[in-house]
Amino acid sequence: MAHATQETAVRTNVVVRALIYTGLLFFAGYYLVPLYVMLVNSVKPLDEIRQGDMMSLPALFTLDPWYSAWSTAQIGVQPTGLKPYFINSIVMVVPAVAISTLLGALNGYVLTKWRFRGDGIVFGLLLFACFIPFQIVLIPMARLLGLVGLAGSVSGLVLVHVVYGLGFTTLFFRNYYDAFPTELIRAAQIDGAGFFRIFWRILLPSSGPIIVVTVIWQFTNIWNDFLFGVSFSDVDSQPVTVALNNLVSSSTGVKEYNVHFAGAVLAALPTLIVYIVSGRYFVRGLMAGAVKG
Amino acid sequence: MAFLEISDLYKRFGAVDALKGINLAVEEGGFLVLVGPSGCGKSTLLNTIAGLESITSGEIRINDRAVNNLHPSQRDIAMVFQSYALYPNMTVAQNIAFGMEMRGVPRAEREKAVAEVAKTLQISHLLDRKPSQLSGGQRQRVAMGRALVRNPQVFLFDEPLSNLDAKLRVDMRTEIKRLHQAMKTTIVYVTHDQIEAMTLATQIAVLRDGVLQQFGTPHEIYNNPANIFVADFMGSPAMNLIPARIEANGGGVAVVMTRDGSEPLQLKVADGKLSAHAGRDVIFGLRPEAITDLSGADRTSPRVVNAECHVEVVEPAGADTYVVTRLGGREVIGRMRSDMHVAPHSTVPFAFNMDKAVFFDPESELRIA
Ligand SMILES: Nc1ncnc2c1ncn2[C@@H]1O[C@H](COP(=O)(O)OP(=O)(O)OP(=O)(O)O)[C@@H](O)[C@H]1O
Ligand SMILES: [Mg+2]
C-alpha cells in the first residue's frame, strides 16, 4: 500500500518535472532566439542575408563583419569601427563603477554606523535620486558640466554616472550594513581603529556579496546607458552605445546588417561577460541582502 | 581614592533618560557586577565607561585619571561583548592581535603575546581558524583572549555568557572567576543572571530605570536589601514579600498577617526599631530558606518562631522541597528538607527565622527595619 502510493508520487513528480522543464526550455529558447539571429547573421556575407532567411545557418562562414565592426566601419565621418568608442566606454565605466561603489559603501557605512542628526533625511534625499527620470536632469546637468568644464568629456560622463548611481549604491550598502553587527565596530574602536581603518579592515572585507551586486548593477546600467552618452559627449568621447547607434543609422551607402549585428554583439559583450562570471554571486548577494546580512 | 569612580553620571538619549545620577566606586582588583531588568541601563553604563557612548554629565575616573573625553582606545580598557564581536574576515590569531597591530606593536612581539594568551585560554590549536569555524564556547574564549592580550586596567564584560548553554555557562563562570583571581584586574561585568552576580561579584550594583537602587557586597545585597525592588530581584526563588501589620504584643512587637479560613498569624519580633511602626501596615520580607520545617531551622539563630500553616502546593526540587502556603493574601514559599513528606492541603508546623526578617514601607517601598 505504502509502496504503491510512493510509486504514484514518484510518477506524478516526473510528470510535473517534465512540464516544468518544457516550460523552462520554451522560455529559454524564446530569449535565446534574438541572440541566435544576431550571432548567425554576423558571420554571413551580406548577400546571404539579403536572400531573406534570417534563421538559417551561414552557407559561407566569414569573420569579416566582426573585423569591420570593430575597426573599419564608417561611424560618423571616420572609418574607425567601434574600437575607439569601446575604449571610451571602458575608460568611462571602470572609474564610474569603482567610484560610485566605493562612495555608496562609504555612505552606507556612515548612515548605519556613524549616525548623525538628520541622517534619515539625507538617506531619503539620496533615495530620491533613484526615482528621478533621466530626462529631467538633462538640462541642469548639461549646465553643470559646462560650469565645471567637463562638458563633452569622458570625465564628465564619469561624473554624471557617479552622481546618478549614488542613490542606488547607497541604498544597497546601507541595507547591507544595517544588518552588520554594530558591536564589531565598537570592538574595533576599542582596538584603536579609526573611521577609515574600520571601513577597510572590517567592513569592506565582509562586503563581498553586496559589492558584486552593486558592481553588476552599476556596470550594466552605465555600460548600456545611451541617453547621457548621447547628450553629454563629443565625437571623441562617445561611448559605444552611441557609436553603435551611429553605425546602424548612418545613412550613407548600403545597410550592412551583418556588420550591425556583429557590432551589437560586441557592444553587449562586456555586460554578458560580467553576468556570466559573477551571476552566481549576484543571486547569492541578492539573497543575502533579502534574508539576512 | 577608588580605582574606578563614577560620579553623578547622567546619560540622555533624546527624550530618554537612560542613566540618572549614578555614583559608584570600585577598588583596584574589584569585581563589580551590574544587574537589573532589561532596559535598566546596564549596557549604557558599561558603554559610557568604555567611551563608546558619550555622557551627558558627570565624571568617570579610572586610576585617578578623568577619562570622560578620551577615545575608547585610550582609556586602557578591554571589552568582551555579548555577541563576541569577532572580526569575521580574520583568523583567531589576527582577531587577538588586531588591537596590537593598530597600536603599531612589532610583529614578533604580537605573535608572542598571542601565543601566550592562547595558551592561558587553551585555544592554541584554533589560532588559524576563522570565527565561523568555532563553537560558541570557543568564540567566547577568543573574545576573552582579545581582551586579555591588552592587559588593560579595567575589563568590561557585557553579558558575556548569555549566548552559551547552561552547562558551558557554569564552566565559563568558574573560568572567569579563576582568571580574575589570577590577574587581579578590576572588572565591570553586566549580567541578567543574579546567580552569576552572586558568585562572581565583590560588589553588586542593582539598577532600575537608570537609577542605582543599591550598591554593596553580594552579602549586603542579599541579606540587607535597601528596598522592595532589590529584595524581589535578587534570589531565586524570590524573597517572600507579605503585606502585614505591626502590632504591640506584650513587651515587644509582633508582625500580623491575615490568613484565609483561620485567625491571623502573629510572629513575634523583638526589634526595637519596629515599635515606632506599631499599628501600621508594612511589607514583611523573608527569604524561602528562612521558612523551614522545625528540624531544618537554623539552630544558631536566637529568634525562630514556630507556627502551624496550611499547605497549598508542594514542589519537590531534588535537594529541597518548596512548600507553598498563603499569608496576607500572597503565596509564601518555604524551603524544607526533601525527606519531609508534606502533603498538600494539610496543616504542618513551619519555622520562621525572624532573625532574617526585613521590613519595608508599603508606600515608599524603602527598608524600615
Ligand atoms: N542609542 C540609543 N538611543 C535611544 N535610546 C537608547 C539607546 N540605547 C539605549 N537606549 C535606551 O536606554 C535604556 C537603557 O538601555 P540599555 O541597553 O542600557 O539597557 P540594558 O540594561 O543593557 O538592557 P538589556 O538587559 O536588555 O541589555 C533603554 O530604555 C533603551 O531603550
Ligand atoms: Mg544590555
Write up this protein.
The complex is a heterodimer of chains A (293) and B (369). Chain A is mostly helical. Chain A has 2 domains: 70 residues, no CATH class; 206 residues, MetI-like (MetI-like fold), CATH 1.10.3720.10. In chain A, helix 4 crosses helix 10 and helix 7 runs antiparallel to helix 10. Chain B folds into 2 domains: 230 residues, 3-Layer(aba) Sandwich (Rossmann fold); 121 residues, Nucleic acid-binding proteins (OB fold (Dihydrolipoamide Acetyltransferase, E2P), Beta Barrel). The model of chain B has no long low-confidence stretch (mean pLDDT 91). Chains A and B meet through helix 8 and helix 9 of A and strand 6 and helix 2 of B. The structure holds adenosine-5'-triphosphate and magnesium ion (MG). The site of magnesium ion has 2 residues of chain B, from helix 1. Adenosine-5'-triphosphate (ATP) binds next to strand 2 and helix 1 of chain B.
Tell me what the CATH architecture of the largest domain in chain A is: Orthogonal Bundle
Class inferred from helices and paired strands of chain A: mainly alpha
Q: End-to-end span of chain B in angstroms?
A: 31 Å
**In CATH terms, what is the fold-level topology of the largest domain in chain B?**
Rossmann fold
* Rg measurement of chain B, Å: 25 Å
Question: In oligomeric terms, what are we looking at?
Answer: heterodimer
Strands of the widest sheet of chain B, in order across it, are 6-7-8-3-9-10
How would you sum up the global shape of chain B?
A: elongated
Number of extended strands of chain A: 0
Determine Rg of chain A (CA atoms, Å). Answer: 25 Å
Helix content of chain A: over 70%
Largest β-sheet summary of chain B? 6 strands, mixed
Largest sheet composition of chain A: none
Please name the CATH topology of the largest domain in chain A: MetI-like fold
Query: Overall mean pLDDT score of chain B?
Result: 91
- Biggest chain pair contact, residues each? A-B, 16 and 21 residues
CATH secondary-structure class of the largest domain in chain A: Mainly Alpha
Helical content of chain B, roughly?
10-25%
Shape of chain A: flat
Q: Give every kind of bound small molecule, once each.
A: adenosine-5'-triphosphate, magnesium ion
